[in-house]
Design brief:
16% of the residues lie in helices and 38% in strands. It is built from seven helices and 13 strands.
Length: 298
C-alpha cells in the first residue's frame, strides 16, 4: 500500500474508522464500545460443571495456570511467541513518525532504531527534523540516555517522558520486548472482525516495567500483536496501541504501522511507520555505549 494512501486512511477521522465501521461523529468512548470484541468465555468459564471440581468452582483463581484450549499455551508462552516474531537477536529499522493534533499541522519525524540482544540494548538515532537531529537515545542496562547537542553530553531521561511531544513515551519506542517485564494470564479467545485473537492480561513483574497493567491481544494464527491497552495501577486507561498493515520487513511478516491513541487527550494520536528494516544483522557492540552516544560529531 502506498504511504499516501495509508496515511489518508489512518488520519481520516483521526484513525477511528480503521478500528470500527462507525460514524466519525461518535465519541471515543462510543468508538471503543463499537470496537469491543465479541464476548467469549474465559478458559475457566468455558469448562462445563462436570469438568470443574467444587473447589475449583469456588476458587477465585484456578489451581493451574489457564491455557489456550487450541494450542495449550499459557499467557507467558503467548507473550514469548509474539516477542520472538517481532524482535530478533539484532534488528535495524528506519521509521517515520506523524504526530496528529486537532487544528494543527502534522509534525513529521524520522529516526533509525538499532536493537541488540532481543531489545535489551537499543540505539535510536534522530534524523529529522533538523532541529531534533543528533538528539539520540540509548537504552542500556535498563537506563535511558539522551545526547544533548548544546551540552555536548548525554543525560539520563525518564522512560515515561513523551517522545517529541507525541503519544509515544521513550519506553514505548525503546523497550520493545514484553517478556522480561510482564507476566501474562490467558483470559480467552476473542473474535474481532472475523479473526481470532488470544486475549492475555499482563501484570508488571519488575519495577522497570513501563505500565502497571496491559491488556494484550495476539493473532491466534500469525502470533503477531494486534492491540495493547495500557492502564495505571488503579485501573485507569491511559492509551491504546494498534498494530496495522502486516507486511514484509526484511525476511519477516510483521505489522508495519503502529497507531498510538491517547485516552487522556481526546483526538490525539501518533502514527509510526516502518519504512525499511531487517533482522539479525551484524551490529557493532560499541554502538550501545554512552561513549558512542557522546562521540565527536562533525
Amino acid at each position: 500500500m502506498q504511504t499516501k494512501t495509508l496515511l489518508s486512511l489512518v488520519f481520516s477521522g483521526f484513525a477511528f474508522a480503521l478500528f470500527a465501521q462507525v460514524p466519525l461523529h461518535l465519541s471515543s468512548e462510543e468508538v471503543q464500545q463499537r470496537e469491543a470484541p465479541q464476548e467469549t468465555p474465559t478458559a475457566e468459564e468455558s469448562a462445563t460443571p462436570a469438568e470443574q471440581s467444587p473447589d475449583a468452582a469456588r476458587a477465585q483463581k484456578p489451581a493451574q495456570e489457564p491455557r489456550s484450549p487450541i494450542l495449550g499455551l499459557t499467557g507467558d508462552e503467548i507473550i514469548k511467541l509474539a516477542d520472538e516474531k517481532m524482535v530478533g537477536e539484532t534488528a535495524r529499522f528506519l521509521n517515520q513518525m506523524i504526530i496528529k493534533r486537532p487544528g494543527m499541522e502534522d509534525m513529521i519525524a524520522k529516526y533509525e532504531t538499532t536493537f541488540q540482544g532481543r531489545g535489551e540494548k537499543v540505539l535510536l538515532r534522530m534524523l529529522f527534523p533538523p532541529e531534533e537531529a543528533g538528539k539520540d537515545l540509548l537504552l542500556l542496562d535498563e537506563n535511558m540516555w539522551q545526547y544533548i547537542p548544546k551540552l555536548e553530553r548525554s543525560m539520563r531521561v525518564a522512560g515515561k517522558q513523551r517522545f517529541m511531544g507525541s503519544d509515544f513515551d521513550n519506553a514505548d519506542l525503546l523497550k520493545v520486548s514484553l517478556v522480561n517485564d510482564y507476566s501474562g494470564t490467558f483470559v480467552g479467545i476473542e473474535k474481532i472482525k472475523g479473526r481470532e485473537y488470544f486475549f492475555v492480561k499482563l501484570e508488571k513483574k519488575r519495577p522497570q516495567a513501563t505500565y502497571d497493567r496491559v491488556d494484550y491481544w495476539v493473532d491466534r494464527e500469525k502470533h503477531l500483536p494486534f492491540r495493547e491497552v495500557y492502564y495505571t495501577r488503579s485501573g485507569k486507561k491511559i492509551k491504546t496501541l494498534q498494530y496495522l498493515n502486516v507486511g514484509l520487513v526484511g525476511n519477516r511478516q510483521v505489522p508495519k504501522t503502529l497507531v498510538m491513541i491517547s485516552e487522556l487527550r481526546p483526538n490525539n494520536l501518533t502514527v509510526v511507520q516502518i519504512l525499511e528494516g531487517n533482522y539479525n544483522l551484524p551490529v557493532d557492540p560499541t554502538w550501545f555505549t554512552r561513549a558512542y552516544l557522546e562521540r565527536k560529531r562533525i
